[in-house]
Amino acid sequence: MDFINIFIKTAFIENLVLSYFFGMCSYLAVSKTVKTAFGLGMAVIFVLAITMPINWLINEHILTEDVMGMDLTFLRFILFIAVIASMVQLVEMVIEKFSPALYTALGIFLPLITVNCAILGGSLFMVSREYNLMESTAFALGGGFGWFLAVVALAAIREKIRYSNVPPALRGLGMAFILTGLMGIAFMSLMGIDPAALGQ
Amino acid sequence: MADTATATPQVKEPLFGKKERRLITDPLNDNNPITVQVLGICSALAVTTQIVPSFVMAIAVIFVCAFSNLTTSIIRNHIPKQIRMIVQLVIIATLVTVVELVLKAFNYPIYKQLSVFIGLIITNCIIMGRLEAFALANKPWRSFLDGIGNGLGYGAILLLVAAIRELTGKGALVGIPIFPQSFYDAGYFNNNLMVLPASALLVIGVLIWIQRAWNPKLVDVS
Questions:
Q1: Which helix (H) or strand (E) holds B176?
Q2: Do A170 and B120 touch (CB under 8 A)?
Q3: Are the beta carbons of A18 and B197 separated by less than 8 Å?
Q4: Which of A50, A125, A147, B113 is most solvent-facing, going by the fewest CB within 10 Å?
Q5: Is the pLDDT of residue A142 over 70?
Q6: 9-48 in chain A: CB under 8 A from chain B
């Protein structure tokens, strides 16, 4: 039950973009068209779902207080980012091999997932909240899905808003910020939902 | 691009000439990392509910940005092109670990408050972006200044947003109440909306609007 609980909580109530601003840079950069937003959203879900369990295992078995008589916790950032960078590289190669169309569609954004804060942020949250393996997988899937949802929604709004008369100085970036703010407020209305009660 | 810097003639450059000054002042307005280059938004927003954590964050980013620029610039001719991302990430991650340990040792409450956002300096796109765009092609001293300049530009926006949010949301600056009690007695309310995460986005959106109205050459044509 915890699985669904955490999934719903991270996807909607504590959405990674809208309440923690994770992955904001690529979120703003790819949300010009729905198509690229969709592709990157899928890639983020995928990478997040792979890296978080791996990072959990590393954190649990290598970065503990005493492994071979040493305290290696200070290596956490470097190891996490190394796992993420190599996983992104791996995903890139697999996509290139099996779906060249998707590969060209994603283009530069694929390597940029490495520096997407949502991925590293997810792993760091997992440590500070002391999730177990199951919970961190749920967090990864929920967080990725929430990110996907938010970026596709913003892209759809930005496609439509091109036909509206926005003040010139606010066009593009400024409007994207304000739209995201309003979306954040809209998502907050989900705060009253108690995921635990849904299962009964 | 990497060749442009090395191709410049080896005349003695002033240590702090006009060009060097521009490296620091440009990112403050015309080329601000947050409002113009749109980099490093992630961590910019989450910590800005109050001034003190934002200040610590800004200092940390200036430190990491300046020294990662310096380090990368020093070894720029030895980094193979294919693995430069990994090398850069390792440099940044090491510096961030230093910041984290120092903060943990000397100011634990702030460390607790910033929690994961210290770690997220690693993925702060400003730092990576400056390494790619500047440090890989320029000499150490100028890269160092560029790092400081961009860190300052980031910090300036961070403090501005934090000041607006703390003043309107909590009625205080740096934790000191600004509005006298008589204001509240007369029916003034702190705007709780400004404490919510969404308001940071609205504040930055409006800041961008103001900056671009002032400086029309920044307007987005697309």
A1: strand B176-177
A2: no
A3: yes
A4: B113
A5: yes
A6: 18-25, 28-29, 32
Q: Residue A10: what pLDDT?
A: 82
Do the Cβ atoms of A126 and A55 come closer than 8 Å?
Answer: yes
CB distance from A72 to chain B under 8 Å? no
In whole angstroms, give the CA distance from residue B113 to residue A166.
Answer: 38
Residue B86 and residue B198 in contact, taking contact as beta carbons nearer than 8 Å:
no
Strand B172-173 versus strand B176-177 pairing type? antiparallel
> Six-digit token pair at B153?
């530009």
Residue position matching structure tokens 């702090």: B16
Cβ-defined contact of A19 to B123 (cutoff 8 Å) = no
Q: Give yes or no for a contact between A58 and B74, defined as CB atoms under 8 angstroms apart.
A: no
- Which residue out of A125, A173, A185, A189 would a mutagenesis test of the B interface target, given it has the greatest number of B Cβ atoms within 10 Å? A173
Are the C-beta atoms of residues B65 and B40 closer than 8 Å to each other?
A: no
B128 Cβ contact list (under 8 Å, min separation 6): A115, B88, B89, B92
Is the confidence metric ipTM above 0.85 for this complex?
no
Nearest residue of A to residue B115, measured between CA atoms: A128
Is residue B60 within 8 Å of residue B40, measured between CB atoms?
no
pTM for this model (two decimals):
0.80
Q: Which of B76, B115, B198 is closest to A178 using CA atoms?
A: B198
Mutation target for A interface from B201, B206, B219, B220: give the one with most A CBs within 10 A: B201
List A70's β-bridge partners, or say none.
A67
